[in-house]
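Supplementary Methods. Inverse-folding protocol.

Structures were first reduced to a discrete structure-token string of length 300. This string, shown here, constituted the complete conditioning input.
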């Protein structure tokens, strides 16, 4: 079953399409990385799923049911833009107000549960305004987790976090899916971080979904290349280009694409008078996949 299934969704603002015939499929249990340039329509799509905006047309199904169905709406938690907390109230009180709003029973227990998930059990009495950015983002997630949702929608939750903040956020998101069986849709520009946790990706451009792929598929399809350094880079590049179809210089390395055998390259270069100083096998990562996809679509 899919947690989210969107077909031909469109939303325009003053005649301009922010979301344009978009399709999206998010399987249950996925951490779905939603990627796209600024203004490509990520937040608008997320707001449509959450019912904060009304679509012009299209279908949104959550867990196989229409997204307007009250029974399914209560299974969705979201953090879009900011958490909407009161700065002078404590973390606990902010969560309590939201728990009351949601009409939750066992409120104390539920607040303790979400604080534990976001690793903030010891920070409940701190005023929201005194929390660091990383803590504020985690409080936002805790708010979204109240009521035990089956789907969590997070808009750029790792923006502005430091290395440690990102690591904690990664651990929390993996916990949410693996321990609590929640599906997570997360938009982000930080592809290197997303790559560490996402199980699926959706790439949006000018309101259209241009590619949906699982991390496994991407791994299987990823182009391999060998990167190397020699003393005479230009001479080695010329020699390699006579034998291999795709040789490029990037970040101070020569890259030979679609080749896996380092020995044959070393041998070939040696025959042509070039000693290899450094050589390693690589695979194209999410960032390069994304850049390649974008440049293809732009016809570069
Ligand atoms: N309420 C609104 N009124 C008018 N235009 C809007 C509104 N919300 C979004 N837009 C426009 O819709 C387009 C998509 O915006 P959206 O915020 O969904 O992009 P995004 O992918 O989330 O971008 P970012 O990465 O900057 O957050 C943009 O051109 C934006 O200006
Ligand atoms: Mg946005």
């Amino acid at each position: 079953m899919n947690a989210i299934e969107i077909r031909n969704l469109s939303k325009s603002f003053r005649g301009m399409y922010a979301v344009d015939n978009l399709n999206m499929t998010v399987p249950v249990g996925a951490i779905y990385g939603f990627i796209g340039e600024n203004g490509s329509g990520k937040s608008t799509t997320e707001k449509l799923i959450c019912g904060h905006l009304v679509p012009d047309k299209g279908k949104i199904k959550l867990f196989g049911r229409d997204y307007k169905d009250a029974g399914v709406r209560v299974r969705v938690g979201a953090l879009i833009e900011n958490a909407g907390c009161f700065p002078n109230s404590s973390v606990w009180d902010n969560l309590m107000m939201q728990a009351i709003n949601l009409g939750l029973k066992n409120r104390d227990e539920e607040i303790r549960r979400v604080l534990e998930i976001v690793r903030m059990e010891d920070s409940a009495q701190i005023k929201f305004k005194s929390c660091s950015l990383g803590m504020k983002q985690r409080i936002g997630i805790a708010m979204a987790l109240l009521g035990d949702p089956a789907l969590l929608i997070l808009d750029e939750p790792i923006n502005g976090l430091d290395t440690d903040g990102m690591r904690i956020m990664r651990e929390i998101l993996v916990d949410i899916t693996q321990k609590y069986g929640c599906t997570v849709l997360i938009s982000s520009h930080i592809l290197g971080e997303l790559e560490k946790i996402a199980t699926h990706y959706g790439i949006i451009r000018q309101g259209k979904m241009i590619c949906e792929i699982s991390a496994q598929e991407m791994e299987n399809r990823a182009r391999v290349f060998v990167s190397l350094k020699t003393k005479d880079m230009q001479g080695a590049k010329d020699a390699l280009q006579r034998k291999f179809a795709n040789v490029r210089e990037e970040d101070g390395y020569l890259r030979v694409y679609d080749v896996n055998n380092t020995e044959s390259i070393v041998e070939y270069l040696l025959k042509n008078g070039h000693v290899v100083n450094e050589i390693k096998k690589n695979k194209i990562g999410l960032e390069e996949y994304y850049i390649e996809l974008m440049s293809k679509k732009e016809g570069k």
